[in-house]
Amino acid sequence: MSGGYRLASGGRIDRSRPLHFRMDGVMHSGFAGDTLASALLANGVRVVGRSFKLHRPRGVMAAGVEETNALVDVGKGANAEANLKATEIELVDGLEARSVNAWPRADRDALGVLGLLKPFLPAGFYYKTFIRPSWDTYEGMIRRAAGLGHAPVGVDPDTYEKQFAHADVVVVGGGIAGLVAAWSASAGDAQVILIDDQPELGGTLLGQPVPINGDAPDIWLSRVEAELRARPNVRLLTRTTATGVYDHHFVLACERRLGAGPRQRLWKIRAKKVLLASGAFERPLVFPDNDRPGVMLAGAARTYVERYGVAAGRSAIVVTNNDSAYHAAFSLRAAGVKVSAIADLRASPPRHALDAARHHDIEVMPATAPAGVAGRHGVKSIKLASVDGAGRLGAASQPIDCDLVCMSGGWSPALHLYAQAGGAMHFDAERGAIVPDAAFEPVVCVGAARGTFTLAASIAEAYAAGAHAAHATGHPSNDGFITPKVDEWPQVAAAPIVELRPARSRGAHSWVDLQNDVTAADVRLAARENYRSVEHLKRYTTLGMAVDQGKTSNVNAIAIMAAATERTMDAVGTTRFRPPYTPTTLGAFAGREVGQHYRPLRRLPAHEAHAELGAVIEDYGGWLRPAFYPKADESEATAVTREVLAVRGGVGLFDGSPLGKIEVCGPDAAEFLNRIYVNNMLTLGVGKARYGLMLDENGIVKDDGVLSRISADKFLVGTTSAGANSIGYWLEEWLNCEWPHLNATIAPVTSQWAVMTVTGPRARDLLRAFDTSIDLSAGACPHMNVREGTFAGVPARIHRVSFTGELSFEVAVPARYGQALWREMLKRGQAFGVTPYGIEALMVMRVEKGYLHIGADTDGTTMPQDVGFAEIMAKKKADYAGKRSTMLPVGRDPRREFVGLEVADGEAPLPIGAHIVDPSEAADTRRTHGWVTSTCFSPTLERPVALALVENGRARMGEIVTLTSTHGRRSATVVGPCAYDPNGERLNG
Description:
With about 1000 residues, this protein is an alpha+beta fold. Strands 10, 11, 12, 13, 14, 15 and 29 form a seven-stranded mixed beta sheet that branches. The N and C termini lie far apart (about 100 Å).
């Protein structure tokens, strides 16, 4: 062993490429091929982090994705990344890492004193402690103490991308089982994608080499990998983690990229078959003080020796309940580490293991287990004791000096992805593991992921699964594979999963979830307090909620809960595994859809013309639209007032292009739409238009708009601009899923038409300045009619509808003519005093008129009877979407109804959201009787106007109500919604 803990030779690292990095400001060195964890161990860094709640010192425990202790922040400023596992970070020159949840550093944490409070902080203490005087008393302190690492500051400078792919077979896992499955599946012409999270293929063979055909496994691995890379129908994705498996064989995978270009790539893969060769995780043993830095999984200790050329200690004790840890002991001994003994929980270890240990001159101590570990910042000694089959410990031995404890409590198949896909699991006592049910078809587990822990059996199983997957997807398999001979021990059952409990703990704790500070006693406490459900256990104790998602803690916790409640592990069950499989950068999910690309905003056909006029352009329903058109130094209020009065007194021009336009055609189009709208649409005549409401299945108002009948079998559905896309999809769903027998087609055409709304008393004068084949006289084109023809020499549809309460015409032309028409209307309209107006002026005029605005005057409880449609509903006998729900008891009185509110002259407008209350009700039982939904000052009426949803509002006309808000109390009178031109004389002009 050379300086520090780096071995003089061995490993897969490149010793010709030294690298330098900093950890907590201290400079260290490593080699290309190291992970940050292996480099820290090589430099003798024992304490790399602190536990979440109690800030207990933590060291590296694992070597892969299951690591629960070694969390670090890397990078600076905008380049920083938080809470990364040191075992997954490839070492690069200049890397800067910081321990998390510690100040000023991991080995000198000021909050380490919290560890002494463990007896006073049992599971669920936060549910019982922060009740009095109130949660608010503690909230600030708790939130400041919460969290682990620090979120980066600034905009992420890296880029991310997404890629879509299709495959016949996707194999997750690049170990021996995954490689064989991919080879078998791709032997014909099936398209195969192999996904592995490591930089190189080989899986556990890279860190726990087993002779294959009498040679080191590298020879066999190189040959199989070369054959796979030579096949054009195979894609190998290394440094790629499968984060989720979803319905219909949809696999999500995140690829970490090196060098220039995107930092990560998110793969969205559709497969016909998915094979999971995701391996298994070694379980810790649950014994007193098992969280000390230097207590490590035996397989991880072997991996650091064999793959990284690092000895995690100089003097080790191996404690195990299965055969695999013996190999770790042998690797450590061969690397020059003193291995004092192997403590085997089994009373009769198998002969082959005993013989091998004797050959390596290592003492085996049957029926022996750890009774405690000493050393706060690193293991200094261990006590051993006799153990029975139930985990009860006898008298402890004298301390045995060591600085490394290698533990193995058996192996748990990595079933997270399998569970995400809906797979069922059960506990197999013979294998001592929770394994997948063989009958589950959507995804197939092979190798260790299936609970097959010998390589020879895994190879046979993987080959058969790959061939079957290829055949199931319509491709031939190939029998040319030569099954290798693997030099390994026979599979022997592990000892039962138990907690090792001394007769007297004397304050020592046995840790189950090391990151969240959950002990075996916490699990038993949850059982005593009747949190017997495994999901309740998880939430009450926070077990399995750390970044490792219980990869090393869940199975042990289930066993302890089973013992505490006298149930089987199957009866306890497992928690629900949710994606992502391991923490994934949010940037990978976002890809390039950030900033202006997060939700691309659409531009009006006349966008440039609006900008030339100095319009203030804002986002309305996903469209960039003019809010108002200020002149000189006008404020928004002044500009909006001017625009409103110009429309009311002359003529205004508004760009209504984003309003939803969906064509519904076919012999059954009328019948289909009659089932969609609340009101009767079968009676709508050709050339006529009718305002209508659409409901969701719960009877809640979903959208509104004008439906026009262009011809006998062609309709134009008008929607709000925000609902244009969603309503189109919604209509498709109803037609294709509920009424596929109806002969109708749906075509969203919102973007195909530009719509210029000409409104005001002189609107007809402006339109007459253009050549048109459409008669726009009051008699030929009355209100709520639609006409087709030509306008200004181009095809056009003109709707006689109004959202301002004035005489209005909506002139729709093909989008490519939109900007030219806008400019020409402004030019010719100068003779009539035309004024462009924006959304804000439109909203003022619609409030004056009392027109409903979906989303502002409605919410997730608003039904059609609340907005004046009760009589229309009563007249319609035919069924329609949401009808039944409107007739449920919830749809009856008292309901909040759409009304207006009027305040005394000279008062300010009511604040939006102000609640109507009954002052006679006690403050602690007072409830809302409704609220203000829209409010403004009316330039036309020279007074405030407001709309509201008020309980039994229509029956309370003339009643003075009290409103309360953060601005204090106000009074208002309940009136009808329409404050301007209630008889409709102006819009019918």
